[in-house]
Design goal:
The complex is a heterotrimer. Chain A is 22% helix and 33% strand. Chain A has 8 helices and 20 strands. Chain A is of the alpha+beta class. In chain A, helix 2 packs across helix 3 and helix 2 packs parallel to helix 4. Chain A has a 6-stranded mixed sheet with strand order 6-7-8-3-9-10, with helices on both faces. A 5-stranded antiparallel sheet of chain A has the order 13-12-11-14-20. In chain A, strands 15-19-16-17-18 form a 5-stranded antiparallel sheet, with no helix packed on it. By secondary structure, chain B is mostly helical. Chain B has a domain of 176 residues: MetI-like (MetI-like fold, Orthogonal Bundle). Chain B is built from 11 helices and no strands. The two termini of chain B are 36 Å apart. In chain C, 76% of the residues lie in helices and 0% in strands. Classes of the chains: A alpha+beta, B mainly alpha, C mainly alpha. At the B-C interface, helix 1, helix 3, helix 4, helix 5 and helix 6 of B face helix 1, helix 4, helix 5, helix 6 and helix 7 of C. Chain A: Its EC number is 7.6.2.11. Chain A: The complex is composed of two ATP-binding proteins (PotA), two transmembrane proteins (PotB and PotC) and a solute-binding protein (PotD). Chain A: This is Spermidine/putrescine import ATP-binding protein PotA.
Chain lengths: 380, 274, 296
């Protein structure tokens, strides 16, 4: 796994068989009447992790988080924190705090009183509360706004108050329910890095629920992709992106070309896949054991496909096609290329040159090429 | 809806509001009439107001009404807030359907039936009728109105505020006291005002449940009105209308001003962000 | 424990002061008239247990209800209450719709003020508002003075102490209940629907008829129920503005109770009044529920 911060010790407790998880879900089931929100789920979350629960709305990620906070009780299974069963513990007695999607700032209390709210109900002596509030205000850079009411500050500031309030009691675990959902795009990107900084500074375990895959990829140490109450894959962001285990994960995260094919012939380290009449077969390297005639999906990201006017000789795969459409996004362009059999491939290229000097345009005959390891073979 | 404001609209609004306000306006004007004849103007005078203030029967009745109003609306507010909370947040419990039925039924029940049934109850348990029985009766039907006002506020109340309080270490009761109650306070106050006005206004239920020594103002006015129009009643009515309108208008101005201030602060907050 | 307290207190209060009294009304309606005070013979002796209860059942009689069917005063009073309430509701609708429509078309910054002007009369005493019409409607009242002055009539109209005075009184006092729900639906109406209708070739009048009116139906229905239901059991308006020939059941009940002191018959009248009201109340509830589901 390539680390993004090479000068730091690699943080991967989930690979360490000795490590004891902070949170353990064991065969947890949650039903609402007939509806099953969580289906037999087992999951470990380690201390100091920034863990993201990612999925479309209704996938059960919020239910999972609310069970951690104590607002929902599992129908079956157990949830432990530091080895202790927390299912029977009331929400106000758990060392877990939550940052709500709506922020849930008390409108009748000032920013400082909002932050002090939990402290006043903790064993912390009165004399220390003011100092702690000050410290939290400094952490989120809101000292000037201590006496304002929530409606007197901006959306971004409210988000930071909510964060400070949920961190004030120094919880073992902080839950963040779509924490950046209400912010506009630019502010959201800045805040993502701020969140990561704060998490690193405090060393608190964070669990974030989001439906925004970019957000999950940016902030999280590990991402759990959920669908219909099940975990589809739990892995680091780069593994989720580069080595998805299923069509669902490949399709949910980022843009992807999914090509249905059948195994025609085994090769050195992989297989030859037949995917369309008259088109050259795809050479794909994979560890997945397959037999002749098996059907599978070849998933390849658009940026892993090169587009050129001439046929390249050095690539394992090259297919001819015609440019149907060009999506110009500024930094990159996405080309929709139609194959001889009618299938459409997406390929993207960085616009390193100015537009006027770019060679490829609509209706051009082009070649798409990729290496044997550029895509993954999926059977699920 | 955005539509052009036409002559037709202007005319119907003018006529409509004239219909709503002209009778009251005439009543107010003729309370200052010199003559005892209520439909012929004979010059300006405030003598009917003097005679209202000298009429001990009116003053006694007003006192009874005020007493009943304050006590019954306070009881109604406490009970109504409790039941509004139960309706919205109580979850399932046995007899919930009956409970919500008993909350909504008095709203549509003809007053004559409510009054009759309460009177029969008081007689059958041998309770002497007086201020106390009127208070019980008024508290019972106005708690239902308070409950509706409070529960409609609670429905739009962001439930995560209560969850946040629990999450930060509150017990459920503590969460209600320090978060829910301060936020729904305006609804509770307007519930009290509604209960108070209903009590001040009620004739039928009070007539059934009052005793010989506890005549309320509406009962007094009613017994006079049956004898016909009198300038004294006009004067008394004007006083009552004046008090209520000042109360309602100033309350709405206060809420409007604070809303305007709040909006200004919100805009400032957005403008001064980052 | 706290939850029990929270539910229990209002629950017991309502049981004791709403449901039990109603049970008593039902019981008295089914018992004999006696001349003593209280003027009914108590028929349920709780101390006697099951035997007492059986005794009670055997003593129940529907004499008072039979009496109600035999004396056509009651029949006529029920029918006349429903008729008066229905006519008044219809007039209120005709008066309220243009006002609500005008409010919805008014510039946005006027609307809160207009709303308050509609609600304000609701806060002023009902009794006074009814009373204020006496001076207007009486033979030498302002309306007759005005009409005689304009020369439209040569003889004063007799309105006071007729059914017409009751219609006017009901329309006047319940008008806000009709205006507000209609205004609420009209205000929500998307203006672009009307523009779309006109764009597709409707005249303004056709657009109103084909788009605005059907879409305001929920408000119209709600308003009609809100006026009709309380109007049926009205007592104050017929007793102040109506004449001796104006029959309304609320007034009959009052007279039966206070003048004739016949409590069993008064109770029977109350029970039947409620039965009459159950149908519109249930219909109204259903309509509200459907509306809520449609909005959600």
């Amino acid at each position: 796994m390539p680390s993004e911060k090479p000068n730091q010790i690699r943080f991967a407790p989930w690979e360490d068989t000795e490590a004891v998880p902070l949170i353990r879900f064991r065969n947890v089931v949650k039903k609402f009447g007939e509806f099953t929100a969580i289906e037999n789920l087992t999951l470990d979350i380690y201390e100091r992790e920034f863990f993201a629960l990612l999925g479309p709305s209704g996938c059960g990620k919020t239910t999972l988080m609310r069970m951690l906070a104590g607002f929902e009780t599992p129908t079956a299974g157990e949830i432990t924190l530091d080895g202790r069963d927390i299912v029977p513990v009331a929400p106000n007695r758990r060392p877990i705090n939550m940052m709500f999607q709506s922020y849930a700032l008390f409108p009748h209390l000032s920013v400082a009183d909002n932050i002090a709210f939990g402290l006043k109900r903790s064993p912390m002596p009165k004399s220390e509360i003011a100092g702690r509030v000050e410290e939290m205000l400094r952490l989120v850079r809101l000292q000037k706004f201590a006496s304002r009411k929530p409606h007197q500050i901006s959306g971004g500031q409210r988000q930071r108050v909510a964060l400070a309030r949920s961190l004030a009691k120094a919880p073992k675990l902080l839950l963040l329910d779509e924490p950046l959902g209400a912010l506009d795009r630019k502010l959201r990107e800045d805040t993502q890095f701020e969140l990561m900084d704060i998490q690193e500074k405090l060393g608190t375990t964070f669990v974030i629920v989001t439906h925004d895959q970019e957000e999950a990829m940016t902030v999280a140490s590990r991402v759990a992709v959920m669908d219909e109450g099940k975990l589809m894959q739990v892995a680091t962001p780069d593994v989720i992106y580069e080595q998805p285990e299923s069509r669902y994960v490949a399709d949910f995260i980022g843009d992807v070309n999914l090509i249905e094919g059948t195994v025609a012939e085994a090769e050195e380290g992989g297989y030859k896949l037949v995917w369309a009449d008259g088109a050259p077969p795809i050479h794909a390297e994979t560890d997945v054991p397959l037999s002749l005639g098996d059907s599978c999906t070849f998933a390849i990201r658009p940026e892993k496909i090169a587009i050129s006017t001439d046929k390249p000789d050095d690539r394992a795969n090259a297919v001819p096609g015609k440019v149907l459409d060009i999506g110009y996004l500024g930094n990159i362009s996405t080309y929709h290329v139609q194959m001889p059999n009618g299938a459409i491939f997406k390929a993207s290229a960085t616009n390193s040159r100015r537009l006027s000097r770019r060679g490829i345009t609509w209706e051009d005959e082009v070649w798409l090429s990729f290496t044997a390891t550029a895509g993954v073979v999926l059977t699920q | 809806m955005n539509r052009r404001f036409t002559w037709f609209n202007a005319t119907s609004l003018t006529l409509g509001f004239a219909f709503l306000y002209l009778p009251i306006l005439i009543l107010i004007i003729f309370s200052f009439n010199e003559s005892k004849l209520v439909t012929v103007w004979a010059g300006f005078s405030t003598k009917w107001y003097a005679s209202v203030f000298n009429n001990t029967a009116f003053l006694d009745a007003a006192l009874v009404t005020l007493k009943v109003g304050v006590i019954s609306s306070t009881i109604a507010t406490v009970l109504g807030t409790m039941s509004g909370y139960v309706m919205v947040r109580g979850g399932r419990f046995r007899g919930r359907t009956l409970f919500s039925g008993m909350i909504y039924a008095p709203l549509v029940m003809p007053e004559v039936i409510t009054g009759l049934s309460l009177l029969l109850l008081f007689i059958s348990i041998g309770m002497d009728r007086g201020v106390f029985t009127i208070v019980l009766a008024h508290a019972t039907f106005s708690m239902c109105y308070v409950s509706v006002v409070v529960s409609s506020r609670l429905v739009s109340f962001d439930r995560s505020l209560e969850e946040a309080a629990l999450d930060l270490g509150c017990t459920p009761f503590d969460a209600f006291r320090s978060v829910t109650l301060p936020i729904i306070a305006p609804a509770v106050i307007s519930g009290w005002l509604l209960a108070f006005t209903l009590s001040l206004d009620d004739l039928v239920i009070a007539s059934f449940t009052s005793g010989p020594s506890s005549t309320t103002l509406p009962m007094k006015i009613f017994s006079q009105v049956r004898l016909g129009v009198s300038p004294e009643i006009n004067a008394l009515s004007t006083l009552l209308i004046g008090i209520v309108s000042i109360g309602v208008i100033s309350a709405s101005l206060v809420t409007k001003r604070s809303a305007v201030r709040r909006r200004a602060q919100e805009q400032q907050a957005v403008g001064g962000a980052a | 424990m706290r939850r029990l307290f929270l539910i229990g207190v209002p629950y017991l209060w309502l049981l004791a002061l709403f449901l039990v009294p109603f049970g008593i009304v039902l019981k008295i309606a089914l018992s004999d008239t006696a001349l003593a005070i209280p003027p009914y013979t108590p028929t349920l002796d709780l101390a006697a247990g099951w035997a007492g209860f059986k005794d009670f059942l055997s003593q129940l009689d529907f004499e008072n209800f039979v009496w109600l069917t035999e004396d056509d005063l009651y029949w006529r009073a029920y029918l006349s209450s429903v008729k008066i309430a229905a006519i008044s509701t219809f007039i209120a609708l005709l008066v309220a719709y243009p006002i609500a429509y005008g409010m919805a078309c008014a510039p946005e910054e006027w609307r809160p003020t207009l709303m308050m002007l509609v609600i304000l009369p609701f806060w002023t005493s009902f009794l006074i508002r009814v009373y204020s019409w006496i001076g207007i409607l009486s033979t030498e009242g302002f309306l007759n003075q005005f009409l005689l002055w304009t020369g439209l009539i040569s003889q004063p109209l007799v309105i006071m102490n007729t059914d017409w005075a009751v219609y006017i009184g009901i329309v006047y006092t319940y008008l806000p209940f009709m205006i507000l729900p209609i205004y609420a639906t009209l205000e929500k109406l998307d203006g672009s629907l009307l523009e779309a209708a006109e764009d597709l070739g409707c005249s303004r009048l056709q657009a109103f008829w084909l788009v605005t009116l059907p879409l305001s139906r929920p408000g119209v229905i709600a308003g009609c129920f809100l006026v009709f239901i309380p109007a049926v059991g009205e007592f104050v308006i017929p007793s102040i503005l109506g004449g001796s020939r104006t029959l309304m059941i609320g007034k009959v009940l009052w007279d039966e109770f206070f003048a004739n002191r016949d409590w069993p018959v008064a109770s029977a009248v109350a029970v039947i009044l409620l039965l009459i009201l159950v149908i519109p109340i249930v219909l109204f509830q259903r309509q509200q529920q459907r509306q809520q589901e449609a909005d959600a």
